[in-house]
Amino acid sequence: MSKIYEKLIRPALFNLAPETAHEFGIESLKIGLASKRAQKAAAKRFAFSDRRLEIERFGLKFKNPLGMAAGFDKNGIVVNQLAAVGFGFVEVGTVTFNPQKGNEKPRLFRLPGDKALINRLGFNNQGTPKVVERLRKIKPECVLGLNIGRNKDVPNEEAIENYLKSFDLAREVADYIAVNVSSPNTPNLRELQKAENLEELLGELQKRNRELSPKPLLVKIAPDLSEAEIEAIVDIAFRLNLSGIIATNTTIGRENLKTKINETGGLSGEPVREKSNAVIKKIYKYSKGKLPVIGVGGVFSGRDAFEKIACGASLVQAYTGFIYQGIAFAHDVNSGLARILKEKGFANPDEAVGSA
Fold first, then answer.
1. What are 12-54's pLDDT values in tens digits?
2. Active-site annotation holder among 166, 182, 183, 276
3. Is 226 among the catalytic positions?
4. pTM for this one?
5. Which residues of 146-167 are buried (b: 16+ CB within 10 A; e: fewer)?
6. For the chain, which domains are there?
7. Rounded to whole angstroms, how far apart are CA atoms 150 and 159?
8. Among 131, 182, 216, 148, residue whose Cα is nearest residue 297
9. Which residues, given as ranges, of the chain have pLDDT below 70?
């Protein structure tokens, strides 16, 4: 199936504008795997089942450590379809409380020579109320995360109230909630990663979380932070008893690209892999391995997933790899990861975390 995608399907999709191809892909999954019967058939063909890949973090049991990163299914349309093709968890979003159209098109660009994407979508989504209403109607077949962000027209001084509105709804349907303060495509959003701003925002969210039945709360950070900033974020995560850190979002850097391109936005895919791994290692170091990390950035194979786990991630996520490799992607990554764990003598992913 991977060869068919590479030789026939991907060239056809890549003849379309990137955002058009993305919408076509979502619609194809939605319609093609709409029924439970179709999902079971897909799972039989694509989901790689191996109990050695099972892992538990922040009170949640994952069938395997590979998740779909936020950004692919922004509106929660194909959660069970993604579970059927082998993802152990799906992170929906980023959602903002009020619906947003996002930035002007074109806003998504392929860099095939680099196996990368640049996006400046700008949190285009249908709004938290509508997405949560949709998710209420499904029974997720995998762990479900919901990634929340700030509306573009809301200044940082009013961000807490904006996040809280989304959080109150998100916790009704999500197994865990991710707080996005690291997208480069919403003006000044990354200012919320500064220690004093981040502690205030996450402190209020965690306070609300404790007042209700608590849900795992994680924060998603950028790959472009200094070591001191990463250390400060780890310290905040411990003080506020966060469940983990998602490392990392897209990068604003453009180092060592083969493709000549002059577009603003966040770069994802292979060029962000090493940056992401470096951040994961620093989080693991400063947390002494006691803070769960979801590693994101440049996962295309089982070896890439293993590298992130060896750097200190408990779980991994992908998005760009799925775009480049197609519907058999999760199967290929999970089967490759299982093989590497066996070769290296690890009984499960837990034993490999931080082994580098």
1. 888 989 999 999 999 999 999 999 999 999 999 999 989 999 9
2. 183
3. no
4. 0.96
5. bbbbbbbebebeebbebbbbbb
6. 2-352 (3.20.20.70)
7. 6
8. 182
9. 1-2
